[in-house]
Structure formats: C-alpha cells, structure tokens
Amino acid sequence: MARLTLALLSAVLGSGLMAAPANAETGITDKEIVIGAFGVLTGPVYNYGKTAFDGAEMIYNETNAAGGINGRQIRFVREDDQCKPDVAVPAVRKLIYDDKVFMINGGACSNASLAAMPEIVRAEIPWVITDSTAPQLTDPPNPYIFTTFQAGWMETAAQLQHALEIGAKKIAIVRQHDAWADSRYPPLIDAMKKRGLTPVADEEVAPDVADTTAVALRVQASGADTVLLLLFPQAATVFMRDTYKIGYKPLAIGGSPLGDVEDMQKAIGIPGATAKFQGLAPTKALDDPAVQKYRPMLKKYFPNAELTPWHLVGIATAQFVVEALKKAGPDVTRAKLASVMSTLAMTPDVYAGPIKCTPEDHQCYRTVAWYGMVDGKMKQVGETTLP
Known about the structure:
The protein has helices at residues 2-19, 50-65, 85-98, 110-123, 152-165, 179-194, 213-221, 233-245, 261-268, 289-292, 294-301, 309-328, 334-341; strands spanning 32-39, 73-80, 103-106, 127-129, 145-147, 171-176, 201-205, 226-230, 251-254, 277-281, 345-346, 355-356, 367-374, 377-385. It is α/β, with parallel strands linked by helices. It has 2 domains: 32-150 and 288-367, Response regulator (Rossmann fold, 3-Layer(aba) Sandwich); 153-281, 3-Layer(aba) Sandwich (Rossmann fold), CATH 3.40.50.2300. The strands form 3 sheets. It has a 7-stranded mixed β-sheet, sandwiched between helices. Strands 2-1-3-4-5 form a 5-stranded parallel β-sheet, sandwiched between helices.
C-alpha cells in the first residue's frame, strides 16, 4: 500500500511539473502574455490614451489572429489614470499587483506617467511608453523603460527649427501654466539663445483658459510673425479663436497635443481659423498609402471609430513591442525583453521615421512630421529629424 501511495503521489507531482509553464515569470504562461496600459481613457484629452490604446489593441488582436507570439496570445489590460498623477499611481499598482502584467505599453499624460514611474521602476517591469513626452522618463536611461514617442525638448527644438526653416523672423511664445509646459520652456529658451534669438513676446495662460483676447492683443502688438504654442487643445483652441477674431493671423506652430489639425479646426468652429496653423505628429499622413489598410482594420475592432494620428501612435508602439517579443524568443523573461529592446531598430509602417534604441539612449524616436489644413483637408506640410 505504501509503495502504491508513493507511486500515485509521484505520478501526480510529475503531472503537475509537466503542466507548469516553461516561463514562470508573472504575467506570462505558455499560452498568454499580459500587457498592461495606463493612460487617460475619459475626458477631453482621451485621444492621448484611449485612442492610442485602440490602435495598439488592434495590432495585438491581429497578432493573436495570426497565431500569437511563440504560441502565446496577448491579453491587453487598460486602466484609466484620468490624466491625473494621484490616479495614475493606484492605476499602475493595480496593473502590477492585481492584474499581474508581464510588461506595460502605455503612458499618456506626462505628469501622470512621472507620478507612476517609481512604482514601475521598483517592480522592474519593462515599460514601453506610448506618448508621454517628459524627458525625465528616459533620461537618464533606465534598463527597463523605453519610449517610441518624441521627448518634450525634441518637440520644442523641432518647433523652433521648423519655424526658422519656413522664414520666421519675430517669434513669440504662448505657453500654459503647468508642469507639462514648464518641462518644455527652458529647453526652448536655451535653443533660441544658441541661435542668438529672444522671443518678442512670452505669454502664459491657464490650461483651462476661456478667453485669451488680452494675450492675443499683446502678441499682435509685439509684431510676431510666428507663435510657438506650448499648449494643450483647450487653451490652443481658445487662443487660435481669439487671434482670428482680432484679425491677427501669424503662423502658429504647435506640439504633439495639437497634431490632429483637423480636430483643432472642428473644435474652433470658424472656417479659415487654422489656415496658418501647423501641428506636430510622429506619424505619416492619414492619406498615405501605407496607412490606408488600417481604416478597415480599425472598423473591424472598433466599428464607431474614425482613423486619427493617435491611432497610428498606438499602432507604432505596439509594432515595436511585438517585434521585441518575437526577437526575445520563446524563453522570454522581463530582463531578456528589456535587453532586446535596448538594441532594437525597426521602422513602423505608420511613422515618419525609424524607431531605434541603444543601451545609452532609450529615447528611441526622433522624427516628426508637420501637418496643416490644405484645401479643407489635413495634409503633411513638412518633416524634421533631430540628431
């Protein structure tokens, strides 16, 4: 009887060992990889989170339909941080400790991402940032953190370079009063000083400002022919509306929050108000042939959605993650995935340039495209690549 019991116990234990996943790290089994995302899913700036995550999920769904990665299906889990630092921290904790994700592919509003960063660093979880732009997230580089979006200082450097390339002589700055704009302002001033330039006007507004007429009049009085906007859509919409109303029509150049120029035009609601407005985005134009295949694909998974540049941001970052997971092989671990990402170079079919990471530089994207309204449609009007 003792020998029989021992034999049965050995069989049960052996069976259990055979059934255990080859990779015992949290968030990954023989059949599944759990990827978490935190970002703004609701409210006026949901494009940075929900829309980008829809693009990423579309790529993950297509990857699953093609057999997954080394036989594993991707499960994409989202948490809403409402673009608020105090909400981002518990959202990330839930992803790490309750949802038990293997890695994170997310991060929208920079202030929220900065607040959540210590939790992710402590857990040593690979994090591919979707579209947060705070340079502190990747500089100095952390072995587990990468971004497939441009940093804030790159945006302002590109704004200045683009303005000068198209003939700006007198440049004004209009910025919102918050940490997001504060991280961009000093690098912009430094870049101007290196070129022997001083802004002819330097104005600050609240992110939720309702009227900027006084600001617009002061900028107009400065004689500025170009205005660099360090603003989110709400403040930018008000400023563009008010400059148009007073008959002031300078070239206005915005950063990535204003990259969807068509959306800006709709929000302003005045025909012609964006005729001299240009916004920055890392993506190709929506009418680019390489982008067209994603329109029906998006409808397949999100029937009520219309393709935007923010979907393309999500597509590109998910393509980077999928490529890294494939290269890491079937025995992937968090450390191995991070190592693969540190030398990964690839060109998403929806981006204006390549993504390239090095062990010394985890700010892996440096090309931006410029968009404006041309004949009533959003069109690419330029491109800038930074060193």
